Automatic annotation (TrEMBL):
It comes from Kouleothrix aurantiaca. The keyword Zinc applies. GO terms for molecular function: DNA-3-methyladenine glycosylase activity; metal ion binding. Pfam families: Adenine_glyco. This is DNA-3-methyladenine glycosylase. It comes from the Bacteria. Zn(2+) binds at residues 6, 19. Keywords: Metal-binding, Zinc. GO terms for biological process: base-excision repair. The keyword Zinc applies.
Amino acid sequence: MSTSYCEFAPTHPLHRAYHDHEYGFPLRGDAELFERLALEINQAGLSWQTILQKKDGFHAAFEGFAIDRVAAYGDAEQARLLADAGIVRNRLKVRAVIENARRLQDIRAQHGSFAAWLDAHHPLTRAEWQKLFKKTFVFTGGEIVGEFLMSTGYLPGAHQPDCPIYPVVLALDPPWHRAGLSL
């Protein structure tokens, strides 16, 4: 039997902090949602621990994930990012984050915010979300989309019901809970 994240995280300092204070907690701000999407994209093929270790580096390198600033990045900023050992230096992932910032500008123009766009489509099944993200963003495969939605409160499953953090998240009334979804 494998250990769940809720069982493993308390044994590791990086994971414990993320598990207890971020994972599954509803996010509303554009920069926070964009950051989580960028981190999930960068996690593809790597461990989440690697991303947590580089989280501060990502935040600094992408200027706090200010959508308009990242969307304006050109060749010089891309070269700077690819030389930054504080992040994952993968050309496809760096380009995806920049392109997704540009797409988020369009989403904000149409819906007012990233959260409003998510809310306008919620609730969807995991498969429907995956289809929507594939049509809307780049570098957003099924695992990336699923983890992004679970980690931001749009899909259930971040915490097991017997996890001490589960009632904390539930008290924040995440979108999955408001929609009547369950594990």
